[in-house]
Amino acid sequence: MDEQNRDNGPKITKSIINAPTNPMVTPLLTDLYQFTMAYAYWKAGKHNERAVFDLFFRRNPFGGEFTVFAGVEECIRYIANFKFTEAEIDFVRDAMPGKCEVAQLLETTLVNLVNFASLVATNAARHRIVAGKSKMLLEFGLRRAQGPDGGISASKYCYLGGFDATSNVSAGRLFGIPLKGTHSHAFVSSFMSLDEILEKSLRSADGSTLCEDFVNLVQTWLNKIQRTKFYGGFGETNLSELAAFTSYALAFPENFLALVDTYDVLRSGVPNFCAVALALKDLGYKAMGIRLDSGDLAYLSCEARKFFQAIESEFGVTGFGNTTITASNDLNEETLDHLNKQGHEVDAFGIGTYLVTCYAQAALGCVFKLVEINNQPRMKLSEDVSKVSIPCKKRCYRLYGKEGYPLVDLMVGENEPAPKVAERILCRHPFNESKRAYVVPQRVEELLKCYWSGSSDKMREDMLPLKDIRDRCIRQLEQMRPDHMRRLNPTPYKVSVSAKLYDFIHFLWLNEAPVGELQ
Amino acid sequence: MDEQNRDNGPKITKSIINAPTNPMVTPLLTDLYQFTMAYAYWKAGKHNERAVFDLFFRRNPFGGEFTVFAGVEECIRYIANFKFTEAEIDFVRDAMPGKCEVAQLLETTLVNLVNFASLVATNAARHRIVAGKSKMLLEFGLRRAQGPDGGISASKYCYLGGFDATSNVSAGRLFGIPLKGTHSHAFVSSFMSLDEILEKSLRSADGSTLCEDFVNLVQTWLNKIQRTKFYGGFGETNLSELAAFTSYALAFPENFLALVDTYDVLRSGVPNFCAVALALKDLGYKAMGIRLDSGDLAYLSCEARKFFQAIESEFGVTGFGNTTITASNDLNEETLDHLNKQGHEVDAFGIGTYLVTCYAQAALGCVFKLVEINNQPRMKLSEDVSKVSIPCKKRCYRLYGKEGYPLVDLMVGENEPAPKVAERILCRHPFNESKRAYVVPQRVEELLKCYWSGSSDKMREDMLPLKDIRDRCIRQLEQMRPDHMRRLNPTPYKVSVSAKLYDFIHFLWLNEAPVGELQ
């Protein structure tokens, strides 16, 4: 998966391949028909035949022209640890009308492991493209995800697709993803008044002094803020909110980030935050910032920014104007795009529901099709041409042009020669005979690599750490020609076949499809 | 959860509550801010306060007016087994800027466990309503589900919502759901010709005779079919398909169900199926039926039915006309509705992607809000009135009318008297002062029950087997007034508050919301 390793060829890894992350990924996590078919194959004496399957999808998700392929590692973990327990065999034997043989029953599980992984990684990558490189993207989706490992997988693959951090502690622990989080509305509304705060002292950041009554310091700052000109027409702030912020700052003086929309962002949340932040500043701490979770995020972020800047100049607090503003609340690709068009002052986006459930398109249509058995090519026909599969064991290449962009991907039969740099090669649409182009690649990248060859001792590519896969994903996306990646009417990125493979597909097709008779 | 148990009151269950189905459901499956807040609560001395949270959603999914609430059992399993390992505590300590106390950090996990469960159960119930009671509904979604337990949860909760069976073997084993499955296109295309079948003998159903060459018997029947008038204009069938069907029948003579659309449904798949089915019939077996997975399902099912009926009368095979037709291929609520309108002959529907990913609406917005702390009611305010939460620990009742339909649900404060049968009670919209109605209930059902009271020894409702929960769900849906359940413009089913609770909400609201000043 990492092109940088290409020059050295595949590596041998001696380390054990761990079991799948989710212990529920067992050989039984499959459709019943995989067992019935395995039994029928065995009855027909076909269980020793060598079969080749392609795992692929037919259409890129979200109306786009790219997909981040993800989930290979979990597939390899599953295959490398594929073993039935006695109890599992007993269950299958009872569930099936016949005796069951152990066979390679991988289809459903592999497709399951790749489908959502690729879908959500692609979704994350699309959010990154819209948000731009400079913004911090936080995945906050666990509570709305499709079940426990819907949430855990989403955290993993959103990070892979270009997010910076997650709120999901379990994913942080399992995959080493940076963790981010603050507090909720419930925290704010659990406080009634400043009197509830019993432990009021706070030591300064350098440890040199102790502020005996931090609550009083906060109140002093709030009074100062309320007397400024720019505070103007606002009335009192909500004091239970102030109590919550103050408590939180006492617990986390180094990490004070306040959710400011429980009562009223501009009249209460932002001034309360500033009072606490300025009190922290007196003790040598720098507040992290605010989070907006409702309302007009473009407007509120701009107003909050003005307020921070006014504080900076009024009280001479250098850098206060740049206090981080995080926004959340049902964000998605489209709302990010709208925010950009309106103009906003948000530095970080917390994205949940629409990201992790892939709301705009909740499934990717990965399929797993037989393309060769016992060296005989096989092909699935269909009245719907988009459902016809491409036969033969294949090799795939990405051909790059002069400007460094990928021009086209090319599939060739396993035994055909690889395309060569600076050599002209005919690339054909697999089904449309008039669509073809000669390509002279400036660089050729082989896309299919071997991550599992039937045994853990054999040669195979290294499994990279998640961070490295993420880096590669970001690099790969950056090298694409921008018009393939834009949200509106992206230019299709083409996947072609060699002339030889084209001819073979159509020979086989005519050979297998019945000819109708009209009377 | 089961109203039939009401009369006997809650039961004490001595049995141990099992761990969550998915071992990944641990105390770390939560947002980081739950830990930071727990620490801040502890620092503020609030960790011994008694808090009440409501878990609720604001809008029914799929444009409907009902939701099947599901997921309680997994929540209880999680709570009853809530315990940090040493390693987990170490991780939280490192991840957090401060020492962590163990606290009740349930929000994210509970919401996660309820959200998707309720969403997909509701989706299943909606499919059942459209399909009608008489159809068999099969959940085939594992491969397209959002990850491994997206698939397993979907199988569980689709069954709860009214489906009949699943293809997911793991779900069958975990939850006792009936399993269904046949074979795939890959199975069909893995065969080349009838010559591949080496073991050709098949014993008759009653064991009395052995057919030495079942393949020949199938071919004989195919020839007979091809000579009939109704076969008419069709040419040869695909013989690799015939080989696959024959092999499958040899393996599963009792359960022969054929996928007939690999090459051509009417020219190849259906006649091939009939040849094998009639050969099986000669040996005393009854074929299960066919599955259609592409094309115009209404048309193809009607044509297939005609063909079966023609076979029945041509060869005098009683009942052959009723051979089961199963349809799959990207079905959803809307396509079922269209099929009904066009007229079709499908007996069973296999539904996958759109069902298990809840494609029409991929998330439910369950939230978890603090409503009381230390006996003090709390309420979350918001500029958006739909986001305001209803304070106080509450009791909920369903009030039934004369015709047996539920009229309205009513929330009252914990210490208010319960509504009584035949006594008039005022029910008010929680936020709209002019919406109110007097209700004289003919029956009152208490909706909130205690499934966990802090310890496994205490009184609590029984956890019912999945089958019983499913039965209750079906009964509950059937008793709703039909206009609440229809797909187009359903009548809203109302949830109201008592007059006393209404007054209290608005008193608290005015008390807590800041008053703006205009200049």
Describe the overall structure.
- Two copies of one chain form a homodimer.
- The first copy, chain A, is α/β, with parallel strands linked by helices and 519 residues long.
- Chain A has two domains: 3-124 and 361-512, nicotinate phosphoribosyltransferase (Alpha-Beta Barrel); 125-356, Alpha-Beta Barrel (TIM Barrel).
- Chain A has helices spanning 32-43, 72-80, 86-95, 107-131, 148-160, 169-175, 185-189, 214-226, 239-251, 265-282, 297-315, 333-342, 353-356, 466-478, 482-485, 499-512, and strands at 51-56, 136-139, 165-166, 202-203, 210-211, 257-259, 289-292, 324-327, 348-351, 367-373, 376-377, 394-400, 406-413, 425-428, 436-439, 443-446, 495-498.
- In chain A, the strands form four sheets. A six-stranded parallel sheet of chain A has the order 3-2-9-8-7-6. In chain A, strands 15-14-17-13-12-16 form a six-stranded mixed sheet.
- In chain A, helix 11 links the parallel strand 7 (289-292) and strand 8 (324-327).
- Mean pLDDT of chain A is 89; it is low at 1-10 and 100-104.
- The interface between A and B is large, with 135 and 135 residues.
